[in-house]
Design goal:
By secondary structure, the protein is mainly alpha-helical. 67% of the residues lie in helices and 5% in strands. Residues 531-558 are annotated as: Disordered.
Amino acid sequence: MTDRLLFEALVIVSVAFIGIAFLVPIRVSSIVAYLAAGLVIGPYGFDVLPETDGIHFLGELGVAFLMFIVGLEFSLSRMIAARRVVFGLGGVQVVATVLLCVAAVWAVWETDLLVALLVGGAVAMSSTAITAKHLSDQGELSSQHGRLALGMLLFQDLATLPFLILIDAVAGHGDESIAATALRAAFTVAAFLVVAFAGRRTLPAFMAWIARGGSSEFFQLSSIMLVLGAAFLAQQAGLSIPIGAFLAGMVLGESDYRHQIEEEIRPFRDVLLGLFFVTTGMTLDPFVVIMHPVAVTLTVFMLIVVKTFVVVVSAKALGWAITPSLRAGLVVAHAGEFALLLLTQAFDNGLLPTELAQMFLVGSGISMAIASVWIPHNGWLAERIAMAHFQREGPQVDESSTEAIVGAASRALSGHIILCGCGRVGQLVATVLDLAAVPYVALERDPRHLQDAKRKGHHVLFGDATRRGILRAAGLPRASAVVSTLPRGEDAERLGRQIRSFDAAATVPLIVGVKDEREVQSLLDAGATPRVSRELGGGAGAGGRDVDCHRQKSGGSG
Protein backbone atom coordinates (compact mmCIF):
# COMPACT_ATOMS: atom_id res chain seq x y z
CA MET A 1 0.00 0.00 0.00
CA THR A 2 2.74 2.44 1.01
CA ASP A 3 4.89 1.50 -2.00
CA ARG A 4 1.95 2.01 -4.34
CA LEU A 5 1.09 5.42 -2.89
CA LEU A 6 4.73 6.50 -3.05
CA PHE A 7 4.92 5.41 -6.70
CA GLU A 8 1.73 7.32 -7.54
CA ALA A 9 3.01 10.46 -5.83
CA LEU A 10 6.32 10.18 -7.70
CA VAL A 11 4.59 9.78 -11.07
CA ILE A 12 2.23 12.72 -10.51
CA VAL A 13 4.94 15.08 -9.27
CA SER A 14 7.28 14.02 -12.10
CA VAL A 15 4.73 14.51 -14.86
CA ALA A 16 3.70 17.85 -13.33
CA PHE A 17 7.37 18.88 -13.33
CA ILE A 18 7.71 17.93 -17.00
CA GLY A 19 4.52 19.77 -17.93
CA ILE A 20 5.66 22.94 -16.18
CA ALA A 21 9.17 22.68 -17.64
CA PHE A 22 7.93 22.44 -21.24
CA LEU A 23 4.75 24.54 -21.28
CA VAL A 24 5.31 27.48 -18.93
CA PRO A 25 8.38 28.81 -20.86
CA ILE A 26 6.14 29.15 -23.95
CA ARG A 27 3.67 31.28 -21.97
CA VAL A 28 1.16 28.51 -21.23
CA SER A 29 -0.50 28.88 -17.83
CA SER A 30 0.73 26.54 -15.10
CA ILE A 31 -2.90 25.48 -14.53
CA VAL A 32 -3.19 24.34 -18.14
CA ALA A 33 0.17 22.56 -17.78
CA TYR A 34 -1.10 20.66 -14.73
CA LEU A 35 -4.33 19.72 -16.54
CA ALA A 36 -2.34 18.49 -19.54
CA ALA A 37 -0.07 16.45 -17.26
CA GLY A 38 -3.08 14.79 -15.64
CA LEU A 39 -4.62 14.07 -19.02
CA VAL A 40 -1.44 12.30 -20.17
CA ILE A 41 -1.28 9.88 -17.23
CA GLY A 42 -5.04 9.48 -16.73
CA PRO A 43 -7.39 6.78 -18.03
CA TYR A 44 -8.05 8.75 -21.24
CA GLY A 45 -4.32 9.18 -21.88
CA PHE A 46 -1.67 6.52 -21.31
CA ASP A 47 -3.58 5.16 -18.30
CA VAL A 48 -0.47 5.12 -16.12
CA LEU A 49 -2.37 5.66 -12.89
CA PRO A 50 -5.88 5.15 -11.63
CA GLU A 51 -7.33 8.05 -9.64
CA THR A 52 -6.67 7.06 -6.03
CA ASP A 53 -8.17 8.35 -2.81
CA GLY A 54 -4.77 9.35 -1.42
CA ILE A 55 -3.80 11.61 -4.30
CA HIS A 56 -7.34 12.97 -4.56
CA PHE A 57 -7.23 13.89 -0.87
CA LEU A 58 -3.96 15.79 -1.31
CA GLY A 59 -5.60 17.70 -4.15
CA GLU A 60 -8.51 18.57 -1.86
CA LEU A 61 -6.04 19.94 0.67
CA GLY A 62 -4.69 22.19 -2.08
CA VAL A 63 -8.20 23.56 -2.61
CA ALA A 64 -8.48 24.09 1.16
CA PHE A 65 -5.28 26.15 1.19
CA LEU A 66 -6.56 28.14 -1.81
CA MET A 67 -9.88 28.92 -0.11
CA PHE A 68 -8.03 29.85 3.09
CA ILE A 69 -6.01 32.49 1.20
CA VAL A 70 -9.18 33.74 -0.52
CA GLY A 71 -10.69 34.12 2.95
CA LEU A 72 -7.66 36.14 4.04
CA GLU A 73 -8.36 38.55 1.18
CA PHE A 74 -11.92 39.10 2.43
CA SER A 75 -11.39 42.47 4.10
CA LEU A 76 -14.52 44.51 4.75
CA SER A 77 -12.62 47.80 4.48
CA ARG A 78 -11.15 46.71 1.14
CA MET A 79 -14.60 45.76 -0.15
CA ILE A 80 -16.08 49.11 0.87
CA ALA A 81 -13.24 51.06 -0.75
CA ALA A 82 -13.74 49.24 -4.08
CA ARG A 83 -17.49 48.67 -3.75
CA ARG A 84 -18.36 50.14 -7.16
CA VAL A 85 -16.09 47.68 -8.94
CA VAL A 86 -16.42 44.67 -6.62
CA PHE A 87 -20.13 44.71 -5.81
CA GLY A 88 -21.28 46.83 -8.75
CA LEU A 89 -19.48 45.45 -11.79
CA GLY A 90 -18.52 42.14 -10.15
CA GLY A 91 -22.04 41.47 -8.91
CA VAL A 92 -23.67 42.35 -12.23
CA GLN A 93 -21.14 40.22 -14.15
CA VAL A 94 -21.71 37.11 -12.04
CA VAL A 95 -25.51 37.40 -11.89
CA ALA A 96 -25.90 38.22 -15.60
CA THR A 97 -23.53 35.45 -16.70
CA VAL A 98 -25.26 32.90 -14.47
CA LEU A 99 -28.73 33.87 -15.77
CA LEU A 100 -27.68 33.74 -19.43
CA CYS A 101 -25.94 30.39 -18.98
CA VAL A 102 -28.85 28.93 -17.00
CA ALA A 103 -31.15 29.80 -19.90
CA ALA A 104 -28.73 28.34 -22.47
CA VAL A 105 -28.03 25.10 -20.56
CA TRP A 106 -31.70 24.64 -19.74
CA ALA A 107 -32.70 25.14 -23.38
CA VAL A 108 -29.90 23.25 -25.16
CA TRP A 109 -29.27 20.34 -22.78
CA GLU A 110 -32.77 20.22 -21.23
CA THR A 111 -31.38 19.76 -17.72
CA ASP A 112 -33.13 20.57 -14.47
CA LEU A 113 -32.75 23.99 -12.87
CA LEU A 114 -30.16 22.92 -10.28
CA VAL A 115 -27.77 21.52 -12.89
CA ALA A 116 -28.17 24.63 -15.04
CA LEU A 117 -27.52 26.85 -12.01
CA LEU A 118 -24.32 25.00 -11.06
CA VAL A 119 -23.01 25.12 -14.64
CA GLY A 120 -23.89 28.82 -14.85
CA GLY A 121 -21.97 29.43 -11.64
CA ALA A 122 -18.92 27.64 -13.05
CA VAL A 123 -19.05 29.62 -16.32
CA ALA A 124 -19.22 32.91 -14.37
CA MET A 125 -15.84 32.22 -12.71
CA SER A 126 -12.49 33.24 -14.18
CA SER A 127 -8.95 32.32 -13.20
CA THR A 128 -7.43 34.70 -10.68
CA ALA A 129 -4.07 32.94 -11.12
CA ILE A 130 -3.95 33.33 -14.91
CA THR A 131 -5.33 36.87 -15.04
CA ALA A 132 -3.34 38.35 -12.16
CA LYS A 133 -0.06 36.79 -13.35
CA HIS A 134 -0.39 38.15 -16.89
CA LEU A 135 -1.48 41.60 -15.71
CA SER A 136 1.43 41.72 -13.27
CA ASP A 137 3.95 40.61 -15.90
CA GLN A 138 2.63 43.26 -18.30
CA GLY A 139 2.59 46.05 -15.72
CA GLU A 140 -1.21 46.39 -16.02
CA LEU A 141 -2.34 45.61 -12.46
CA SER A 142 -2.83 49.31 -11.67
CA SER A 143 -4.37 50.15 -15.05
CA GLN A 144 -8.09 50.84 -15.27
CA HIS A 145 -8.89 47.56 -16.99
CA GLY A 146 -6.60 45.80 -14.51
CA ARG A 147 -8.52 47.22 -11.55
CA LEU A 148 -11.84 46.33 -13.18
CA ALA A 149 -10.67 42.75 -13.77
CA LEU A 150 -9.33 42.34 -10.22
CA GLY A 151 -12.57 43.69 -8.75
CA MET A 152 -14.59 41.16 -10.73
CA LEU A 153 -12.23 38.34 -9.77
CA LEU A 154 -12.58 39.23 -6.10
CA PHE A 155 -16.37 39.07 -6.28
CA GLN A 156 -16.17 35.81 -8.24
CA ASP A 157 -14.01 34.27 -5.52
CA LEU A 158 -16.59 35.27 -2.91
CA ALA A 159 -19.48 34.09 -5.10
CA THR A 160 -17.96 30.60 -5.11
CA LEU A 161 -19.01 30.18 -1.49
CA PRO A 162 -22.81 30.21 -2.02
CA PHE A 163 -22.43 27.60 -4.78
CA LEU A 164 -20.34 25.37 -2.51
CA ILE A 165 -22.97 25.75 0.23
CA LEU A 166 -25.66 24.85 -2.31
CA ILE A 167 -23.76 21.72 -3.35
CA ASP A 168 -23.33 20.76 0.30
CA ALA A 169 -27.01 21.33 1.03
CA VAL A 170 -28.27 19.30 -1.93
CA ALA A 171 -25.67 16.49 -2.09
CA GLY A 172 -27.01 13.22 -0.75
CA HIS A 173 -30.45 14.67 -0.25
CA GLY A 174 -31.81 14.51 -3.76
CA ASP A 175 -35.25 13.36 -2.63
CA GLU A 176 -35.77 16.38 -0.35
CA SER A 177 -38.22 19.14 -1.21
CA ILE A 178 -37.07 22.60 -2.22
CA ALA A 179 -38.17 23.91 1.19
CA ALA A 180 -36.07 21.29 3.00
CA THR A 181 -33.06 22.08 0.84
CA ALA A 182 -33.49 25.81 1.49
CA LEU A 183 -33.76 25.14 5.23
CA ARG A 184 -30.56 23.07 5.16
CA ALA A 185 -28.74 25.83 3.27
CA ALA A 186 -30.03 28.46 5.72
CA PHE A 187 -28.78 26.36 8.64
CA THR A 188 -25.36 26.11 7.02
CA VAL A 189 -25.18 29.88 6.52
CA ALA A 190 -26.31 30.52 10.11
CA ALA A 191 -23.67 28.15 11.51
CA PHE A 192 -21.13 29.80 9.24
CA LEU A 193 -21.93 33.28 10.62
CA VAL A 194 -21.92 32.14 14.26
CA VAL A 195 -18.52 30.50 13.94
CA ALA A 196 -17.18 33.53 12.05
CA PHE A 197 -18.30 35.89 14.82
CA ALA A 198 -16.84 33.72 17.58
CA GLY A 199 -13.60 33.11 15.70
CA ARG A 200 -12.95 36.82 15.17
CA ARG A 201 -12.56 37.21 18.92
CA THR A 202 -10.29 34.21 19.53
CA LEU A 203 -8.11 33.42 16.51
CA PRO A 204 -6.37 36.84 16.23
CA ALA A 205 -5.44 36.61 19.93
CA PHE A 206 -4.13 33.09 19.34
CA MET A 207 -1.97 34.26 16.42
CA ALA A 208 -0.67 37.18 18.51
CA TRP A 209 0.48 34.69 21.14
CA ILE A 210 2.15 32.59 18.42
CA ALA A 211 3.90 35.65 16.97
CA ARG A 212 5.30 36.60 20.37
CA GLY A 213 7.10 33.25 20.43
CA GLY A 214 9.52 34.62 17.85
CA SER A 215 9.97 31.32 15.99
CA SER A 216 9.25 31.26 12.25
CA GLU A 217 8.71 27.48 12.34
CA PHE A 218 6.21 27.92 15.18
CA PHE A 219 4.28 30.51 13.14
CA GLN A 220 4.35 28.37 10.00
CA LEU A 221 3.14 25.24 11.81
CA SER A 222 0.35 27.16 13.50
CA SER A 223 -0.82 28.51 10.12
CA ILE A 224 -0.93 25.01 8.64
CA MET A 225 -2.67 23.73 11.77
CA LEU A 226 -5.38 26.39 11.37
CA VAL A 227 -6.13 25.32 7.80
CA LEU A 228 -6.23 21.61 8.61
CA GLY A 229 -8.19 22.21 11.83
CA ALA A 230 -10.79 24.33 10.08
CA ALA A 231 -11.13 21.73 7.32
CA PHE A 232 -11.59 18.95 9.90
CA LEU A 233 -14.20 20.86 11.93
CA ALA A 234 -16.13 21.76 8.78
CA GLN A 235 -16.15 18.13 7.69
CA GLN A 236 -17.38 17.03 11.14
CA ALA A 237 -20.17 19.62 10.93
CA GLY A 238 -21.28 18.28 7.56
CA LEU A 239 -19.75 21.10 5.53
CA SER A 240 -17.17 20.78 2.77
CA ILE A 241 -13.44 21.20 3.42
CA PRO A 242 -13.16 24.36 1.23
CA ILE A 243 -15.93 26.11 3.20
CA GLY A 244 -14.17 25.47 6.51
CA ALA A 245 -10.86 26.73 5.16
CA PHE A 246 -12.48 29.86 3.75
CA LEU A 247 -14.10 30.54 7.13
CA ALA A 248 -10.76 30.31 8.96
CA GLY A 249 -9.12 32.63 6.44
CA MET A 250 -11.96 35.14 6.65
CA VAL A 251 -11.72 35.24 10.45
CA LEU A 252 -8.03 36.16 10.18
CA GLY A 253 -8.50 38.51 7.22
CA GLU A 254 -8.65 41.66 9.36
CA SER A 255 -5.78 40.69 11.67
CA ASP A 256 -2.30 42.20 11.64
CA TYR A 257 -0.83 38.82 10.71
CA ARG A 258 -2.74 38.30 7.45
CA HIS A 259 0.17 38.94 5.10
CA GLN A 260 2.62 36.83 7.09
CA ILE A 261 0.16 33.93 7.28
CA GLU A 262 -0.38 34.14 3.53
CA GLU A 263 3.37 34.00 2.89
CA GLU A 264 3.72 30.92 5.12
CA ILE A 265 0.80 29.11 3.45
CA ARG A 266 1.44 29.98 -0.20
CA PRO A 267 4.17 27.37 -0.97
CA PHE A 268 1.99 24.55 0.36
CA ARG A 269 -0.99 25.91 -1.54
CA ASP A 270 0.88 26.06 -4.84
CA VAL A 271 2.18 22.47 -4.63
CA LEU A 272 -1.02 20.87 -3.33
CA LEU A 273 -3.23 22.89 -5.68
CA GLY A 274 -1.07 21.62 -8.52
CA LEU A 275 -1.99 18.08 -7.45
CA PHE A 276 -5.67 19.08 -7.55
CA PHE A 277 -5.34 20.26 -11.15
CA VAL A 278 -3.41 17.12 -12.09
CA THR A 279 -6.14 14.88 -10.63
CA THR A 280 -8.75 17.01 -12.41
CA GLY A 281 -6.83 16.54 -15.66
CA MET A 282 -6.90 12.78 -15.09
CA THR A 283 -10.71 12.89 -15.31
CA LEU A 284 -10.78 14.79 -18.62
CA ASP A 285 -11.97 12.89 -21.67
CA PRO A 286 -10.47 14.56 -24.78
CA PHE A 287 -12.60 12.38 -27.03
CA VAL A 288 -15.64 14.38 -25.96
CA VAL A 289 -14.40 17.04 -28.41
CA ILE A 290 -14.74 14.50 -31.25
CA MET A 291 -18.01 13.04 -30.00
CA HIS A 292 -19.69 16.37 -29.19
CA PRO A 293 -17.88 19.10 -31.17
CA VAL A 294 -20.88 21.44 -31.32
CA ALA A 295 -21.55 21.19 -27.58
CA VAL A 296 -17.89 21.81 -26.67
CA THR A 297 -17.75 24.75 -29.09
CA LEU A 298 -20.89 26.19 -27.48
CA THR A 299 -19.26 25.78 -24.06
CA VAL A 300 -16.14 27.68 -25.15
CA PHE A 301 -18.39 30.29 -26.79
CA MET A 302 -20.19 30.88 -23.48
CA LEU A 303 -16.92 31.12 -21.60
CA ILE A 304 -15.34 33.59 -24.01
CA VAL A 305 -17.88 35.54 -26.07
CA VAL A 306 -20.79 35.63 -23.63
CA LYS A 307 -18.58 36.58 -20.69
CA THR A 308 -16.83 39.33 -22.68
CA PHE A 309 -20.20 40.67 -23.85
CA VAL A 310 -21.59 40.71 -20.30
CA VAL A 311 -18.55 42.55 -18.93
CA VAL A 312 -18.54 45.17 -21.71
CA VAL A 313 -22.27 45.89 -21.44
CA SER A 314 -22.15 45.96 -17.63
CA ALA A 315 -19.08 48.20 -17.47
CA LYS A 316 -20.49 50.60 -20.07
CA ALA A 317 -23.81 50.77 -18.20
CA LEU A 318 -21.93 51.63 -15.00
CA GLY A 319 -20.04 54.46 -16.69
CA TRP A 320 -16.69 53.11 -17.85
CA ALA A 321 -15.31 53.85 -21.31
CA ILE A 322 -15.42 51.27 -24.09
CA THR A 323 -11.68 50.51 -24.33
CA PRO A 324 -11.05 49.62 -20.66
CA SER A 325 -14.39 47.78 -20.63
CA LEU A 326 -13.32 45.68 -23.60
CA ARG A 327 -9.88 45.01 -22.16
CA ALA A 328 -11.35 43.97 -18.81
CA GLY A 329 -13.80 41.67 -20.59
CA LEU A 330 -11.05 40.06 -22.64
CA VAL A 331 -8.75 39.35 -19.70
CA VAL A 332 -11.49 37.55 -17.69
CA ALA A 333 -13.05 35.72 -20.66
CA HIS A 334 -12.07 32.19 -19.65
CA ALA A 335 -12.78 29.59 -17.01
CA GLY A 336 -10.83 29.38 -13.77
CA GLU A 337 -9.74 27.26 -10.87
CA PHE A 338 -13.06 27.80 -9.10
CA ALA A 339 -14.97 26.73 -12.21
CA LEU A 340 -13.04 23.45 -12.11
CA LEU A 341 -13.68 23.21 -8.36
CA LEU A 342 -17.45 23.72 -8.71
CA LEU A 343 -17.71 21.28 -11.62
CA THR A 344 -15.69 18.55 -9.88
CA GLN A 345 -17.50 19.03 -6.56
CA ALA A 346 -20.89 18.85 -8.27
CA PHE A 347 -19.82 15.82 -10.33
CA ASP A 348 -18.33 13.99 -7.33
CA ASN A 349 -21.57 14.52 -5.41
CA GLY A 350 -23.68 13.13 -8.24
CA LEU A 351 -25.27 16.46 -9.17
CA LEU A 352 -23.87 16.70 -12.72
CA PRO A 353 -24.32 14.07 -15.44
CA THR A 354 -20.99 12.62 -16.61
CA GLU A 355 -21.37 13.76 -20.21
CA LEU A 356 -22.27 17.34 -19.30
CA ALA A 357 -19.47 17.54 -16.72
CA GLN A 358 -16.93 16.35 -19.31
CA MET A 359 -18.09 18.91 -21.87
CA PHE A 360 -17.69 21.80 -19.50
CA LEU A 361 -14.44 20.56 -17.96
CA VAL A 362 -12.85 20.15 -21.40
CA GLY A 363 -14.32 23.46 -22.59
CA SER A 364 -12.93 25.15 -19.48
CA GLY A 365 -9.46 23.77 -20.15
CA ILE A 366 -9.58 24.96 -23.77
CA SER A 367 -10.67 28.47 -22.75
CA MET A 368 -7.84 28.71 -20.20
CA ALA A 369 -5.28 27.65 -22.81
CA ILE A 370 -6.61 30.25 -25.27
CA ALA A 371 -6.58 32.95 -22.57
CA SER A 372 -2.87 32.41 -21.96
CA VAL A 373 -2.32 33.39 -25.59
CA TRP A 374 -4.54 36.43 -25.94
CA ILE A 375 -4.32 38.18 -22.55
CA PRO A 376 -0.83 39.55 -23.42
CA HIS A 377 -2.43 41.11 -26.52
CA ASN A 378 -5.62 42.43 -24.87
CA GLY A 379 -4.80 46.03 -25.77
CA TRP A 380 -4.35 45.28 -29.47
CA LEU A 381 -7.51 43.13 -29.56
CA ALA A 382 -9.58 45.76 -27.75
CA GLU A 383 -8.44 48.48 -30.15
CA ARG A 384 -9.38 46.36 -33.19
CA ILE A 385 -12.78 45.42 -31.76
CA ALA A 386 -13.53 49.01 -30.76
CA MET A 387 -12.64 50.33 -34.22
CA ALA A 388 -14.66 47.62 -35.96
CA HIS A 389 -17.83 47.59 -33.87
CA PHE A 390 -18.08 50.80 -31.85
CA GLN A 391 -18.20 54.44 -32.81
CA ARG A 392 -15.48 56.52 -31.29
CA GLU A 393 -16.72 58.26 -28.17
CA GLY A 394 -14.68 61.41 -28.73
CA PRO A 395 -11.38 62.28 -27.12
CA GLN A 396 -10.92 60.36 -23.90
CA VAL A 397 -8.07 60.10 -21.49
CA ASP A 398 -7.83 56.72 -19.83
CA GLU A 399 -6.08 57.91 -16.72
CA SER A 400 -4.75 54.47 -15.89
CA SER A 401 -4.03 53.05 -19.31
CA THR A 402 -0.48 52.14 -20.25
CA GLU A 403 -0.05 55.55 -21.90
CA ALA A 404 -1.26 57.34 -18.77
CA ILE A 405 1.09 55.35 -16.52
CA VAL A 406 4.05 56.19 -18.75
CA GLY A 407 2.89 59.80 -18.98
CA ALA A 408 2.69 60.13 -15.21
CA ALA A 409 6.28 58.87 -14.88
CA SER A 410 7.66 61.31 -17.48
CA ARG A 411 5.47 64.35 -16.83
CA ALA A 412 8.08 66.22 -14.78
CA LEU A 413 11.01 65.30 -17.04
CA SER A 414 12.66 67.42 -19.72
CA GLY A 415 15.90 66.80 -21.57
CA HIS A 416 15.69 63.16 -20.55
CA ILE A 417 16.60 59.94 -22.37
CA ILE A 418 13.93 57.54 -23.61
CA LEU A 419 15.41 54.03 -23.37
CA CYS A 420 13.56 51.58 -25.62
CA GLY A 421 14.16 48.00 -24.54
CA CYS A 422 15.52 46.83 -21.21
CA GLY A 423 17.01 43.43 -21.97
CA ARG A 424 20.67 42.64 -21.29
CA VAL A 425 22.04 45.56 -23.32
CA GLY A 426 19.29 47.92 -22.21
CA GLN A 427 20.09 47.20 -18.58
CA LEU A 428 23.74 48.08 -19.22
CA VAL A 429 22.63 51.40 -20.68
CA ALA A 430 20.29 51.99 -17.73
CA THR A 431 23.18 51.35 -15.34
CA VAL A 432 25.35 53.90 -17.15
CA LEU A 433 22.55 56.48 -17.05
CA ASP A 434 21.95 55.83 -13.35
CA LEU A 435 25.65 56.27 -12.54
CA ALA A 436 25.75 59.49 -14.56
CA ALA A 437 22.55 60.74 -12.87
CA VAL A 438 20.94 61.23 -16.29
CA PRO A 439 17.10 61.19 -16.10
CA TYR A 440 15.48 58.60 -18.33
CA VAL A 441 12.29 56.69 -19.02
CA ALA A 442 12.83 52.98 -19.79
CA LEU A 443 10.23 51.05 -21.78
CA GLU A 444 10.03 47.27 -22.20
CA ARG A 445 7.26 45.17 -23.75
CA ASP A 446 8.63 41.70 -22.96
CA PRO A 447 7.27 40.67 -19.51
CA ARG A 448 10.33 38.52 -18.78
CA HIS A 449 12.79 41.34 -19.45
CA LEU A 450 10.53 43.72 -17.53
CA GLN A 451 10.54 41.58 -14.40
CA ASP A 452 14.28 40.87 -14.68
CA ALA A 453 15.09 44.58 -14.95
CA LYS A 454 12.87 45.42 -11.98
CA ARG A 455 14.51 42.72 -9.89
CA LYS A 456 17.88 44.33 -10.62
CA GLY A 457 16.64 47.69 -9.39
CA HIS A 458 15.99 49.48 -12.69
CA HIS A 459 12.93 51.71 -12.95
CA VAL A 460 11.32 50.37 -16.11
CA LEU A 461 7.74 50.64 -17.36
CA PHE A 462 5.71 48.27 -19.51
CA GLY A 463 5.08 49.69 -22.96
CA ASP A 464 5.65 49.15 -26.67
CA ALA A 465 8.10 51.89 -27.65
CA THR A 466 7.21 51.54 -31.34
CA ARG A 467 3.69 52.88 -30.65
CA ARG A 468 3.09 56.57 -31.23
CA GLY A 469 0.95 56.99 -28.11
CA ILE A 470 3.61 55.48 -25.87
CA LEU A 471 6.32 57.73 -27.31
CA ARG A 472 4.14 60.80 -26.81
CA ALA A 473 3.41 59.75 -23.22
CA ALA A 474 7.14 59.24 -22.59
CA GLY A 475 7.68 62.92 -23.43
CA LEU A 476 9.36 62.50 -26.83
CA PRO A 477 9.13 66.21 -27.81
CA ARG A 478 10.91 67.14 -24.54
CA ALA A 479 13.53 64.35 -24.69
CA SER A 480 17.20 64.94 -25.50
CA ALA A 481 17.63 61.54 -27.18
CA VAL A 482 16.07 58.15 -27.75
CA VAL A 483 18.26 55.07 -27.24
CA SER A 484 17.02 51.83 -28.81
CA THR A 485 18.28 48.41 -27.76
CA LEU A 486 15.36 46.63 -29.44
CA PRO A 487 16.62 43.27 -30.71
CA ARG A 488 14.94 43.32 -34.11
CA GLY A 489 16.08 45.64 -36.86
CA GLU A 490 12.55 46.14 -38.17
CA ASP A 491 11.46 47.41 -34.75
CA ALA A 492 14.24 50.01 -34.82
CA GLU A 493 13.14 51.08 -38.31
CA ARG A 494 9.55 51.40 -37.15
CA LEU A 495 10.71 53.39 -34.13
CA GLY A 496 12.64 55.73 -36.43
CA ARG A 497 9.55 56.30 -38.61
CA GLN A 498 7.40 56.97 -35.55
CA ILE A 499 9.88 59.59 -34.28
CA ARG A 500 9.98 61.22 -37.73
CA SER A 501 6.19 61.52 -37.64
CA PHE A 502 6.43 63.99 -34.71
CA ASP A 503 7.03 67.54 -35.96
CA ALA A 504 7.86 68.61 -32.41
CA ALA A 505 10.55 65.93 -32.17
CA ALA A 506 12.44 66.81 -35.35
CA THR A 507 15.74 67.34 -33.56
CA VAL A 508 15.52 64.41 -31.13
CA PRO A 509 18.19 61.86 -32.15
CA LEU A 510 17.64 58.11 -32.08
CA ILE A 511 20.71 56.08 -31.10
CA VAL A 512 20.48 52.50 -32.33
CA GLY A 513 22.96 49.66 -31.95
CA VAL A 514 23.56 47.91 -35.28
CA LYS A 515 25.50 44.78 -36.19
CA ASP A 516 26.38 45.27 -39.87
CA GLU A 517 26.18 47.62 -42.84
CA ARG A 518 22.89 46.13 -44.02
CA GLU A 519 21.12 47.42 -40.92
CA VAL A 520 22.75 50.83 -41.39
CA GLN A 521 21.36 50.97 -44.93
CA SER A 522 17.88 50.02 -43.76
CA LEU A 523 17.95 52.81 -41.20
CA LEU A 524 19.20 55.24 -43.84
CA ASP A 525 16.29 54.20 -46.04
CA ALA A 526 13.99 55.03 -43.13
CA GLY A 527 15.34 58.61 -43.15
CA ALA A 528 18.27 58.33 -40.75
CA THR A 529 21.73 59.81 -40.86
CA PRO A 530 24.53 57.66 -39.39
CA ARG A 531 26.83 58.83 -36.64
CA VAL A 532 29.08 56.83 -34.33
CA SER A 533 28.05 57.36 -30.70
CA ARG A 534 31.07 57.92 -28.45
CA GLU A 535 29.01 58.17 -25.27
CA LEU A 536 27.45 54.72 -25.34
CA GLY A 537 29.87 53.02 -27.70
CA GLY A 538 29.88 49.24 -27.49
CA GLY A 539 27.43 49.11 -24.56
CA ALA A 540 24.33 50.20 -26.41
CA GLY A 541 25.45 48.75 -29.68
CA ALA A 542 26.52 45.37 -28.32
CA GLY A 543 29.87 45.69 -30.07
CA GLY A 544 28.51 47.14 -33.30
CA ARG A 545 28.12 50.63 -34.69
CA ASP A 546 25.70 53.19 -33.29
CA VAL A 547 23.45 55.19 -35.55
CA ASP A 548 21.87 58.53 -34.78
CA CYS A 549 18.55 58.63 -36.58
CA HIS A 550 16.55 61.84 -36.65
CA ARG A 551 14.26 63.71 -38.94
CA GLN A 552 16.09 65.08 -41.96
CA LYS A 553 15.31 68.71 -42.44
CA SER A 554 14.85 70.04 -45.94
CA GLY A 555 18.18 71.03 -47.40
CA GLY A 556 20.29 68.79 -45.15
CA SER A 557 20.34 66.64 -42.10
CA GLY A 558 19.54 68.02 -38.65
